[in-house]
Structure formats: structure tokens, C-alpha cells
């Protein structure tokens, strides 16, 4: 029964480690080169440092065209859904971030039918509220994307670096999962060995006690 319980505990530990790995967040920089006439993902990821803390977040995007001084508000995503804030981007922006959760960590959007006028600086803001036991903590995090629009696709350095970092993050998470499983296995194995030793000692003491009582009974009989 104890061995079965330890096996169940090991299985639960592995499931927990896998769920943590799937829920892990990696901050990857956005691509910075779009092709005219096609779609483009404006990436914006802000990972929550403490996954166990409940939180909510809203995301806002701003755009400053090349050669201009001021940013204009172009997009908002909150608990009510997406809102396109600027006429130049009407029907051209789609939400491409976290779904079915108010705890947004991926605030990416997808820009449709890219034009050369979309060249410029994009900035996204995460307005996050963290809920602790006795108080709430508000924080604002911003990310910047410098977008250039070209007539024909080229393999930019930023794109290569982003892809490499993505694969490094995936490998790192897999290594972490393996280490977590090995740790669980060793811990549960040690607990199992200890339980077996205790059971053996208890059995030995019971046999010794029974033998002693039998000897005493024989002596009384004589």
C-alpha cells in the first residue's frame, strides 16, 4: 500500500512539473521587418515574475509614424475585448495575444494589409494589477517595436535572433522539466526505501517480541 501511494505521489509530481512547464512564459522580441501588402505580428510579451500570484492586465498599443514626434493611441485590449482606437488601423488589427484569461502575458497584435505608412515605432503597455493576500500592487510595463516595411521579404538579423531565442527557451524548459522529474523520483525513492526499512524493523521487533514471549511461556511450563 505504501509503495502504491509513493507511485501515485510520483505521478502527481510529474503532472505538476509538466503543467508548470506548459504554463511557463518566455519573453521573445518581436520581428521588426514587415512586407507591404501582407500581415505582420507585432509581438509584445511581459512575463509575470511570480506565477502563483493572481493578476489581471490590460494592454494598450501606441504608434509613432516615421518622422513624427508624437504617439497616437491605436489599440486597447481589456476585459471587454479589443478596441481599435485609430481610424488608420480600423479593420486592420486583430488580437493575437493571451486568450480566455484576464491574466494577460502575451499582448501581441496582428497587423493586416501592411503599408509603407505603417513604418515607425510601436509601443505596447501592460497595465497589470497583482493581488496579494492583504493588498494590490499596480505596475506598468512597456515594450517597443521599431518596424520597417519593405517591398520584398528579407531574412533580418532580429528575426534570426528571435527564432534562436525561442528554441533556446523551449530547450531550457524541457531541461527544467527533466531535472524536476529526476528530483521527484529521487525524493520519492528515498522515502520508499525509508518506509521499507521502517516496515522491516517493525517486523523484526514483532518477531523478536513473539520469540521472547514463547521462550517465557516454555520456561513457565517447565
TrEMBL record:
Residues 45-142 form the Ig-like domain. Keywords: Cell membrane, Cell projection, Disulfide bond, Glycoprotein, Immunoglobulin domain, Ion channel, Ion transport, Membrane, Signal, Sodium, Sodium channel, Sodium transport, Transmembrane, Transmembrane helix, Transport, Voltage-gated channel. GO terms for biological process: cardiac muscle cell action potential involved in contraction; regulation of heart rate by cardiac conduction. This is Sodium channel regulatory subunit beta-1. Belongs to the sodium channel auxiliary subunit SCN1B (TC 8.A.17) family. It comes from the Eukaryota. The keyword Ion transport applies. A voltage-gated sodium (Nav) channel consists of an ion-conducting pore-forming alpha subunit functional on its own that is regulated by one or more beta subunits. Forms homodimers and homotrimers. SCN3B is non-covalently associated with alpha subunits and induces the formation of alpha subunit oligomers, including trimers. Interacts with SCN5A/Nav1.5; regulatory subunit of SCN5A/Nav1.5. Interacts with SCN7A/Nav2.1; probable regulatory subunit of SCN7A/Nav2.1. Interacts with SCN10A; regulatory subunit of SCN10A/Nav1.8. GO terms for cellular component: axon; perikaryon; voltage-gated sodium channel complex. It is found in: Cell membrane; Cell projection, Axon; Perikaryon. Coiled coil: none annotated. Regulatory subunit of multiple voltage-gated sodium (Nav) channels directly mediating the depolarization of excitable membranes. Navs, also called VGSCs (voltage-gated sodium channels) or VDSCs (voltage-dependent sodium channels), operate by switching between closed and open conformations depending on the voltage difference across the membrane. In the open conformation they allow Na(+) ions to selectively pass through the pore, along their electrochemical gradient. It is a single-pass type I membrane protein. GO terms for molecular function: sodium channel activity; sodium channel inhibitor activity; transmembrane transporter binding. Gene3D superfamilies: Immunoglobulins. InterPro entries: Ig-like_dom, Ig-like_dom_sf, Ig-like_fold, Ig_V-set, Na_channel_b1/b3. Its main location: membrane. Pfam families: V-set. Residues 1-26 form the signal peptide.
Amino acid at each position: 500500500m505504501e509503495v502504491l501511494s509513493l507511485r501515485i505521489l510520483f505521478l502527481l509530481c510529474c503532472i505538476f512539473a509538466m503543467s508548470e512547464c506548459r504554463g511557463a512564459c518566455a519573453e521573445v522580441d518581436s520581428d521588426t521587418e514587415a512586407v507591404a501588402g501582407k500581415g505582420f505580428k507585432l509581438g509584445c510579451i511581459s512575463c509575470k515574475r511570480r506565477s502563483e500570484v493572481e493578476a489581471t492586465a490590460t494592454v494598450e498599443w501606441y504608434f509613432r509614424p516615421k518622422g513624427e514626434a508624437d504617439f497616437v493611441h491605436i489599440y486597447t485590449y481589456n476585459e471587454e475585448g479589443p478596441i481599435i482606437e485609430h481610424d488608420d488601423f480600423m479593420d486592420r488589427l486583430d488580437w493575437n495575444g493571451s486568450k480566455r484569461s484576464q491574466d494577460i502575458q502575451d499582448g501581441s497584435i496582428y497587423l493586416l494589409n501592411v503599408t509603407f505608412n505603417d513604418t515607425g515605432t510601436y509601443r505596447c503597455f501592460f497595465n497589470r494589477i497583482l493581488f496579494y493576500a492583504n493588498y494590490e500592487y499596480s505596475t506598468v510595463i512597456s515594450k517597443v517595436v521599431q518596424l520597417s516595411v519593405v517591398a520584398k521579404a528579407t531574412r533580418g538579423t532580429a528575426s534570426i535572433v528571435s527564432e534562436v531565442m525561442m528554441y533556446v527557451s523551449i530547450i531550457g524548459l524541457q531541461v527544467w522539466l527533466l531535472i524536476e522529474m529526476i528530483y521527484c523520483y529521487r525524493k520519492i525513492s528515498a522515502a520508499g526505501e525509508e518506509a521499507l526499512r521502517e516496515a522491516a524493523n517493525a517486523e523484526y521487533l514483532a518477531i523478536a517480541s513473539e520469540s521472547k514471549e514463547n521462550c517465557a511461556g516454555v520456561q513457565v511450563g517447565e
